[in-house]
Each structure stands twice: as structure tokens, then as C-alpha cells.
Amino acid sequence: MKNLTLLLLVLAFVSCKKDDDVVQYDPTPYTLEYGNFPAPKLPADNPLTVAGVELGRMLFYEQMLSKDGTQSCATCHKAEDNFNDIRRFSIGVDGGEGRRNAMSVSNLAWHNTGFFWDGRAATLREQALKPIQDPVEMNETLVNVVTKLKSSKMYQDQFTKAFKDPEINSDKVALALEQFMFTMVSHDSKYDKWLKGTAQLTDSEERGRVLFFTEKDPFNNIKGAECFHCHNGFDFSNHSITNNGLDADADFKDLGRFEVTKNASDKAKFKTPSLRNIELTPPYMHDGRFVTLEEVIEHYNSEIKQSSTLDPLLYTIQAGLELTPQDKADLIAFLKTLTDQNFTTNPKFQTPF
To answer: Is 273:105 a contact under the CB 8 Å cutoff?
Structure first.
């Protein structure tokens, strides 16, 4: 009798252990933190869940997504650099060099004009798969990516937790990456604290702030840097796709948005990036031509080039903003108040491995 009782206890223990090992779908909603920003309009067909976001984070740092297993999304979007690449052009798995500077991965939940410098991806899930397949970047096929992920028990379990159905496919890879990148919100800079009344700007930062948000008016002797026209709102970008006067028509090398639309009016037009964490993301512009913020400011101060597709807002400042060295220093001091160190060190966005 004792032996029978012992056998039943062992069988019950084994049965419970097997039940415990069964991976279950976990629909627990993910709470998005976005400070004082307006609530983003996220796609209804891909709600944020704790399991989905975690899967996306795993995939963001997963080197199996590349051809030779040496690169992940995070290779060219490093946390300490505002999830950007401080190299002028990123280097792919086969040593190939890209032709545009990597864009930062932050506050993407509010982008509504497409992704990449030319806006060629309409959605974030579409954007997420393109670097994987790009022959100059990760140079892998989606078929191979799925095959590699299916061979991993860890990923089999995580896909089940995130999507209920254990099937692994490229659509789910894109949805998970989209979920994770939607959570990457930078909203806690010194400027944000100043807005809330919990921090004070220095005299130089305040002068820079005023210059940033002021339009030059020579008739009334008002000095302004006019930055706010394109870099406005809580994300310091209108996310428009424009020509910001880097080159004259004869010097266009990268035709930008035109490569997507084939519309001549889109030549040399590129997406306006956010200025949040701009201190951490050199070099600047789509081709990384400017190494410092001083060079960027001098471009708008005195070096705008006339062209057939130049943004009309820039016509008015082609004669120059007449900024003094002190004005430029103050502008840079203000721009540095947009740095959010809590974002770049947030463990939620770091590697899970």
C-alpha cells in the first residue's frame, strides 16, 4: 500500500511538473510610458503586450537575423548613442558600407510620414524587416530567419506567449519588433523637467531656447534662429520630408524621396529628424556630412544652397541669420537640454541576453 501511495504521489508530481512546463499565451497589456506627450495612435491590430514587447526586444538584439550571425538591429542602433550609429555610414555583414546615416530609434510611435530618410516604409512593421533583407546590411532572407528561429526552443516559447499560435513567421517577427520599438520613448530630458517646473535652465540655455523658437525679423531688429519651423512640437520635429538646402541642383548625389515617388519635386528631400538627444547622435544630416552641432548651425546660419526643391521656409533665411558666436553657443546649450540619459540607460531597452 505504501508503494502504491508513493507511486501515485510521484505520478502526480510529474503530471504537475509537465503542466507547469506548458507555455501559455500571455495577453497581459504593456503599459506605455510617455510622460507629458500626447497619447500615440497605435495600430489596433498589434496591441502592446508584455510578452510581445519582450519578444521584440529579444529580436532587436538577436544576431540570428543576419546572414552570418554577427549583427543585430542593435549593432547599428546602440543604446548609448540614442539607438543610432555614430559612424557616418554603417557597415554590413559582408563589409559593405551604407549610403545614409542610420536614423535614431526613438519616439517612433508618433511618426506618421513613413520611416527611413525617404519615408519608403509606410509602417514600422514594414521598416523592421527591410534591414534584415538589405544586401548591404544584414543580408539575410526571411525564410532563413524563420528557419533559425524555429530551431530555438526559447523562441518557440516566446512566440507562443506573444501570439498564442506557436507558428513562427516573418509577419510575427515584424509585429514583435514594431511593438518593442513603439515602447522606446524618450521624454525625460532636462527640457521636459523644465516644462514641469522641476529644473531650471541656465542663462545660456534660456537664450538658446528663445533663439530656437523666434523668427528673425530684421525690420523690427528681432534676432531669431527659426529652428521651430521644422523642429516643433513635443518631439522637436514636424516629421515632414523636405529639402533643407544642403546642395544646389547640380550637386544632388542622393535624390532622397524622389527615389520612392519618381516625382521631380521630391528630389533631395529627406525626413526631418527629431532633435531629441541630438547631442548623442553625430554625425548629422542624411549623409552624415556634419560632424558637430556647430557645423549644423552654421549651415542654417550662412550656408543654405538654392535649388529647385528647397523648402520654401528656408528661402527667407538664405541671406543668413547673422548669429554671433555667442548665439551659436547658446543654441547648442539649449539643444543639449534635450538629452535624456534615462532613455539611453533604461534597462527596458537594453539587451535581454
So the answer is: no
